[in-house]
Design brief:
mainly alpha; 7 helices
């Protein structure tokens, strides 16, 4: 596999990870980067590097980020975030990987792109669940800010320093996985039943 193709896979993985934080931020960054000549797109995805696509991604990004600061809207977004993140992860991976046959590109997109985006989305969902369980949702704006910041940082790094983007995403998953699993175990109904009296 030629280095350019390998690097495009790393870029795609970084952008897919960013989709787990926010769905539209990576697409907006891709559009900006491709219009600026900093990112080559796979055949069939040239539409991402158009002004209408840029405008649509910018509006969608603004609405998505703002929605997480509105009570109840953030819960609605959480419901649709997981499937949307997986779809976005597949899309950004497929559009970023160049120099590969369509079959292999889509296989990488579905397995790696969708898998990475879904994993990061699960982690962010656990962070929000933790926030709701421990603060009654009072800390949700802080979590939303951290998620939006993570999406921006990882997206930009994916374009400029792809390996750093993958490293940051992996660090987030590793740091959050243990606490998230412990929280989920505490919230299981069978774990909340009172102990039988002797």
């Amino acid at each position: 596999m030629i280095p350019e193709t390998l690097m495009s896979i790393v870029v795609g993985i970084g952008l897919s990870a960013a989709c787990g934080f926010r769905v539209f931020v990576p697409l907006l960054v891709m559009s900006i980067a491709s219009l600026a000549g900093q990112l080559s797109l796979a055949p069939g995805f040239e539409w991402i590097a158009t002004v209408p696509a840029l405008a649509a991604f910018a509006l969608a990004t603004a609405l998505e980020i703002a929605g997480y600061y509105i009570p109840w809207v953030d819960h609605l977004l959480d419901v649709i975030a997981s499937p949307a993140a997986v779809i976005a992860g597949i899309l950004v991976m497929a559009s970023a990987v160049t120099g590969m046959s369509p079959f292999l590109r889509w296989a990488f997109a579905i397995i790696a792109g969708g898998g990475v985006a879904g994993t990061v989305q699960v982690i962010t969902g656990m962070a929000r669940l933790t926030s709701g369980a421990t603060t009654g949702g009072a800390a949700n704006p802080l979590v939303a800010t951290a998620e939006a910041g993570g999406a921006i940082v990882v997206s930009v790094l994916a374009i400029l320093i792809p390996l750093a983007a993958v490293a940051v995403a992996a660090a987030v998953v590793l740091l959050a996985w243990g606490p998230g699993r412990r929280l989920l175990r505490r919230l299981r109904p069978e774990d909340r039943k009172p102990a039988p009296s002797s």
